[in-house]
Design goal:
14 helices; seven-stranded antiparallel beta sheet; 2 domains; single chain; 12% strand; 330 residues; alpha+beta; 7 strands; elongated
Length: 330
């Protein structure tokens, strides 16, 4: 993916010409022209048309408040719809002005300023999420589209835009940006349930969940946290990774973890993954039973976005956490 090298973040046409430039333009509050940017992205940038359309629709919804509004305005077939929208706006404005006449001028001015301030904060929050999403997409050397016919759900975007408007913390904005980028790549990757979880998720809880992710094992579609006998029976939480029982209860309350102990059964070799490293897990006897906590659907979807770093001895980890349960590396 070509990156911007010009500090103006615009090409010779005066418009952003790469995803990185569009992201920087949005981050600086310059807005996002969903038509020009989408057209400009085709100039030497290997992005499938279906992805460009989702960028235009998804990012346009968050910043412009409408679906592909500018692009539709170019299409003359929408003149009737545009006329109806203008008439609706006029009616709302008349009703609002009539109401304002019934209250003192200083109060109406305060109401207007309060409304503008709230709108500005929400718009800035959504803009940062869009910028983060575009930054994630720009980092992909070549974006592939597994399902070119897939479209972004309008209901999903409506809900996502509402939640994005409330997030001012940079880390939470970054997380939501990665979710939007994932949804643009593959619509349906993140459920409304996950967006609902993000509505109340705080930075502190997100950091605790990130700690938990260092202890999560991926097996096909299951994401589980293996437990030792002490973990399962003493109620001390997971002190080896810095999480108390209260922390685990909090993660459960936020809809990320299920603390009802389950047992993963391994009766034949299978592919496991820990901290991004895959290995063949084999039972040392006829079968292995691993007591564990499971991630919820929301927890599993957010887990895929966590960037796990640092040195890691896979063999030592497996021997310590899975070996006592009869699991070895094949």
């Amino acid at each position: 993916m070509t990156s911007a090298t010009d500090e103006s973040t615009t090409g010779s046409s005066g418009f952003p010409i790469t995803l990185a430039e569009v992201a920087e333009s949005v981050r600086k509050g310059k807005g996002f022209d969903v038509t020009i940017s989408a057209l400009a992205l085709t100039h030497g940038v290997p992005i499938p048309p279906s992805i460009i359309e989702r960028i235009r629709v998804g990012c346009g919804r968050l910043i412009d408040g409408g679906f592909n509004y500018v692009a539709r305005a170019v299409d003359r077939r929408t003149e009737a719809a545009d006329f109806h929208a203008r008439k609706t706006t006029e009616l709302v404005s008349k009703a609002a002005n009539a109401g304002l006449k019934q209250i003192p001028a200083d109060v109406s001015e305060a109401i207007a300023m309060s409304f503008l301030n709230e709108y500005a904060v929400k718009h800035d929050n959504r803009s940062q999420v869009v910028a983060d999403a575009l930054t994630v997409l720009a980092a992909d050397p070549r974006i592939e589209d597994e399902d070119p016919n897939a479209v972004l759900s309008k209901d999903w975007l409506n809900y996502f835009a509402d939640i994005a408007a409330q997030k001012s913390d940079p880390e939470m904005q970054s997380l939501m940006g990665r979710i939007l980028a994932g949804e643009i790549r593959r619509p349906g990757s993140f459920s409304p349930l996950t967006i609902h979880c993000l509505a109340t998720l705080t930075r502190a809880v997100a950091q605790k969940f990130e700690l938990l992710c260092y202890h999560v094992v991926c097996c096909q579609e299951a994401f589980f946290v293996p437990l030792s006998d002490e973990d399962a029976n003493t109620g001390k939480g997971l002190p080896q990774i810095g999480l108390s029982i209260i922390d685990l209860i909090q993660l459960t309350t936020y809809g990320l973890l299920l603390m009802d102990t389950k047992h993963m059964q391994l009766d034949s070799p299978d592919i496991f993954a820990v901290r991004g490293q895959s290995f063949t897990a084999i039972p040392s006897a006829d079968e292995a039973l691993i007591p564990c906590f499971l991630l919820t659907q929301a927890g599993a979807e957010i887990y895929r976005l966590v960037e796990i770093s640092g040195s890691f001895d896979l063999q030592a980890w497996v021997a310590s956490n899975l070996g006592p349960r009869g699991v070895a590396i094949g």
